[in-house]
DNA sequence: AGCTATCGGATAGTCCGACTGTCTATGAGA
DNA sequence: TCTCATAGACAGTCGGACTATCCGATAGCT
């Protein structure tokens, strides 16, 4: 197919497709001459993946490039984790400020010892500091429940991974699942909050759902 | 204190402080004359909150303004949820594309019936569609575990809320906890993945932690 | 009283990411 | 032959978050 048809089928403007090709996120069409190139189903699929990661998970174009590059290169699973986490920088991975000692301790209390130096531990600790900056420090019990939930999610992630026999498929699910899993969980958390709120404080009239 | 001292204590440049005042995120100092104003501890605390929400949780200045405004106005708890969710738009709340029917069904299967129309349900469904665009649809079991984890987190959130007797404190924790809870969970998920990975696939040499 | 460093306030400029628009040469199809 | 879509290059736009410059005034020192 030609670029205009690819644009029509994907809902992405021709200009944006060209931009993605320029940025190396999408392969160029197979050239049939100086001003003619052919695109196939692979291009359409990749385009849907790009739009999905960008729109649905908020991944940057540079991040999509890393993820897509990993898929193309067929990297091993253990590297896929690194790619996924570099492509989707943890919100607030600005390591400018050091977290407070007691926030760091609070995090250490709920994670496995070998993960104490993990960059995400500092992110979590800084978030705890921000709770305090707002005048509302959270309890250890709250944090423990979060860690428990995170463990459930991580086990589900690995079970899903082991469900796939093919190493390439495993790498794919890791590369893509890190970003998308965050979104799925955030969404389900919003929904669960609404459900739990309704359970604890029933509203007589039909509740108006908050605008997200 | 004067603006330069506020800048020094907070680590935020004078120019940025002025910008925050212009944007209405931070109150202006108390004017002592045409070119003299005094700032107090409240300003410093607010500045720390702003930097925390921006750096740690990736909230936009406009979002911080809504959250901070809610704190100042002393809004009721049920409204605080709406404020928090509008201030921290769910990644991928671009309602341009409709999720597929079977993704919508998959989400419906794991949430409470009254939440089916919730905007976050569409976000979650779109994320499932993106898994498929990557060629790796996820299993119902995976989604169920996520929903279970989300329920645990939501209960922890409400327990933490009910721990506070003061309605103003409840509103504060809601306004701030939505954004920060996402970050804490994401961080703990990364850590739990590393831990679970180590448990299932032990690495003989000390594992190199992935760069976040 | 004179001087100067700093302050508050306003306005304009910068930087970055993600596009979007314009232009040119070319060649396929009517 | 003529028109029109295309590939490819490059400049322009837009929004968000600052950052730099300028100006008038005055606190505080001499």
UniProtKB/TrEMBL annotation, chains A, B:
One Gene Ontology molecular-function label: DNA binding
Domain of life: Bacteria
Chain segments annotated as transmembrane: none
Residue ranges occupied by any HTH merR-type domain in the UniProt entry: 1-70
InterPro entries per the UniProt record, alphabetical: DNA-bd_dom_put_sf, MerR-type_HTH_dom, MerR_fam
Keyword Zinc included in the entry's annotation: no
Pfam families in the record: MerR_1
Keyword annotations of the record: DNA-binding
PANTHER family from the UniProt entry: HTH-TYPE TRANSCRIPTIONAL REGULATOR ADHR (PTHR30204:SF98), REDOX-CYCLING DRUG-SENSING TRANSCRIPTIONAL ACTIVATOR SOXR (PTHR30204)
Annotated protein name in UniProt: MerR family transcriptional regulator
């Amino acid at each position: 197919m030609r670029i205009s048809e690819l644009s029509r089928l994907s809902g992405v403007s021709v200009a944006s497709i060209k931009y993605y090709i320029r940025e190396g996120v999408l392969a160029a069409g197979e050239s049939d001459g100086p001003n003619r190139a052919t695109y196939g189903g692979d291009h359409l699929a990749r385009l849907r993946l790009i739009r999905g990661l960008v729109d649905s998970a908020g991944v940057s174009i540079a991040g999509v490039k890393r993820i897509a590059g990993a898929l193309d290169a067929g990297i091993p699973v253990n590297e896929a984790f690194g790619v996924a986490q570099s492509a989707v920088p943890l919100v607030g991975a600005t390591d400018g400020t050091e977290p407070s000692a007691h926030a760091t301790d609070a995090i250490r209390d709920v994670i496995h010892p070998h993960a104490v130096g993990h960059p995400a531990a500092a992110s979590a600790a800084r978030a705890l500091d921000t709770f305090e900056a707002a005048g509302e420090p959270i309890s250890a019990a709250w944090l423990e429940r979060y860690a428990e939930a995170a463990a459930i999610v991580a086990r589900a992630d690995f079970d899903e991974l082991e469900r796939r026999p093919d190493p390439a498929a495993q790498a794919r699910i890791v590369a893509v699942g890190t970003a998308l899993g965050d979104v799925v969980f955030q969404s389900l958390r919003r929904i669960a909050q609404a459900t739990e709120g309704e359970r604890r404080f029933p509203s007589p009239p039909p509740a108006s759902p908050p605008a997200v």
